[in-house]
Predict the 3D structure of the following.
Amino acid sequence: MSTKFLAAAALALAAMAAPCLAADSNMKNLDFDLSKVTRENFYDIVVPAAKAEGSVTMYNFAGSFADTWKELITRFEAKYGIKVAYSDVKGDQANQQLIAVQAAGQDSPVDAYFAGGGSYPLLSSKGVVGNISLTSILPNMANYDPELAKTVFGKPHGGSFPLVHLNQTAIGYDSAFVKAEDVPKSFEELLAWAEKNPKRLGVTLPAKGGSGGGFIYSVALNYLSGDCRKQLTDYNQTLQQAEDWAMQSKCLDPVWDYYRRLLAVAELTNGNADTLNLINNQQLYMGTVWEDQVMTFLGTKQLPDSFRLTLLEKGQVGSGDAMFVPANAKHVAAALLLIDMAISKEFQLWKLETKASRSPRTDVTNDLMPKAVQEHVLPQSVYPRLSLPAFWDMSTALAEALDEKVLNQ
Amino acid sequence: MGGLLRDRRAQLLLLLAPGVGYLLVFFGGPLLSALIGSFRQDDGSFTLVFYERIFTRASMMRGLSTSIYYGVMPVIVSLAASVPLALLIRRSFFGRKLFSGLYKLPMAVPGIIVGLMVIVVFERGGFLDRLVAPLGLGLPKLVRDDWGIGVILASVWKQVPFMTLIITSAFAAIPEDIRNAARTLGASRLKTFFIVEVPLAMPGITAAILLTFIGSMGSYAIPDIVGPPTARPLSVLMVKEFNQGRFNQVYAMGMVLSLFAVSVLLLYYSLTSRIGTGQNRGDAS
């Protein structure tokens, strides 16, 4: 009888306490007092709570990161003894799943989600992102880039959506076919090279690959100035507003002219991997690429060792992907601990060396990479100097407009 | 209650209920929901904007015509391959049993695998291209080609066994006596085939055409992987819209595709009913 009474009392207490624990955030299933957690007492509070939870579920939207996260999981399980249930997902579909689950008021199927950096506006607008200032409380985020700590691609996130991996769109080329003096340094030189070498430049269709989406936004940044550029870089626009502007604005005429000329002599490809595959097949000598994907392809011998990267003057966009805790996650403490380990200096260094995955930590820099790896990443003469922040909603809008104004005319 | 059960109409309704109920719940319901969704804004108000986008945007109109093109072309090519294949299978030859089993294999291969297979084998600089390169030969562009030849051939490879299976059954159902009678009356083999056998097998052939057309028109993986990036069918554009969370636009596109498929279905029924009438004219009864 007394056991039953105690259990009922504990349940009632938990039910009363839960809303208090969640008072400062939109977290639904907190089983510890998040408001008391600081960088200093993080491990004292979170580790016992995480061990009590016993497991954590992680989603990974990036196919090329599966082995990276397996390494993290091995380290995490060995250190804390907490089981990680891992799933590779298709980002857009997982986003829609989380939005549907949130709308239905159900528990999230995932506790720590490695999601595309560009998905923050959508996920936050639907209440999916847990309102936890990770960059303020995770000990391993003490050396986090201060700008990225509060905003992601121009959108304030309050520390809830921290990038744990930075990547860069670039121009990749096979140095066996392209001489050093012929490597284009600007968008105009790239067009001139393509005209001189018809069907040897691969441009990823913006709607089907981030290297193409990044490239079209970079072209627009290169050609637009004044009020047009202000509109182009106004991160407060919704996707619909950006689309309306991209469809109607005369500002973008130079971009469409550039693409008309470029696509007359370049090969439009069906995705990032498609571009790299054609370069590996020696059908293309140059293409729009992601720096980290190049490293993955080099590692699996799907690109020749002679492959090199560069950035064009006036800059090309860089992006990043975040790890966050959904608002209705069930194992919040374990998720926090996992994200903390993902951003640790040791893991970020390992990730940089093996994946060319740039780090948002200020103490993890390019010169820490082994010399052999440095050959295959963007040289320090162009990175980070020519890296510009991505604006994926605008890239999507430009991709839609490209479809209407150039590709289907 | 007992009286009700003895009523013929009630009995008929009860017997039809499982089948009709299943169709209503699992086909009619979602279709109706999608139809309503295609006319609704996020705030619930009525709109035609999603249909307007389909018929005013160049990419959407091209998507519709590409869907029809990817529906029709594989049917024509598959038919040209399936009819001779069906006739061949009817004959007796060495290894016929093995061949009859092997030719059906592509049916079991998912579209996405077919797409990736084309990329690996037929891409420029791919497996076959490297194989013939020492002979001074090169493959034509089959991946991302403007006419979608790669998509059509990949669809044909997947659809031919299915089409052949149905057409073989249709020819097999024609009594041997009818063929013999035509031959006895002086018709050549070719004439017997075109004047007697093809018309009698036509219900099966049209069913194969219809099913292949609908399958090819709605296919996603092969056109997405192998097709040209500029002309993408509605199925590929639908997934793009879905990924951006524009469900109402997806519903509208689905409705347009379904409407087209239903129109083809009605055409099929009209055609087969005429064939039936023609056949009955010669019946002794």
